Amino acid sequence: MICEHAEMVKRQPAVTVVIPAKNEAENIRPLISEIRAAMDDVFDYELIYVDDGSTDQTFNILKTIRDEGFSKLKVISHQQSVGQSFSVLNGARNGKGEWLVVLDADGQNDPADIPGMLKTLQAAYAADPKKVGIIGHRVTRRDDWVKRLSSKLANGFRDWMLKDGIPDTGCGLKATRRDWYVQLPAFNHMHRYVPALIQSMGGEMLVHPVNHRPRMAGVSNYGVWNRLWVGLVDVFGVRWLQHRAKRIVIREILNGD
Whole-structure pTM over 0.70, yes or no? Predict the structure, then answer.
């Protein structure tokens, strides 16, 4: 029994990679190939795809890849769409890694950036346990002018209100301690405010320059309305949460018989 338990502990992945996906069938195989190329020889990891109520072949393609023998892949399929924030949170809660990595399913985030981000974060955390997260900064954006303008306006207003000091909070590529992420307050669009929420719980987020690429295939699920205007409204709610959030740290548990 002791040997079996030791083997189970040994198999726990160090990193949980979560990708929320809605109607991204064409992007799945190339993105998974890039993740494997970046991660297989560097980290012990698991990959969790959260199919958020897709109406295309997203789930079937993921199931096929799993059946082909990619044992690191776990697939969670939602009966109906609940949005990116809840998809990521569901993936994080179902993960087992000490560290959590999140990236978008459209291929605009470059998996080659993940190892460097993780190593930077792990070194920072070892020196200071308050440094629990890192987020990408897309220095050169590969979006159209509408997305760039809406992001610039939203980032400026957010930083003015929340004072989080993060230049690109909308970047989908980020890494955190998983135990911190699962304690963040859950609400729609919360994925855009992870740095501010982490800070409100006493943690710190680092910034790391990352590559940004055009979408591989398909159509974005975001437009001006749900990228800019909704985000501006959310800022007021996050500002309220900043003064009320708490992180639970358990000192000890005494179990009964």
Answer: yes
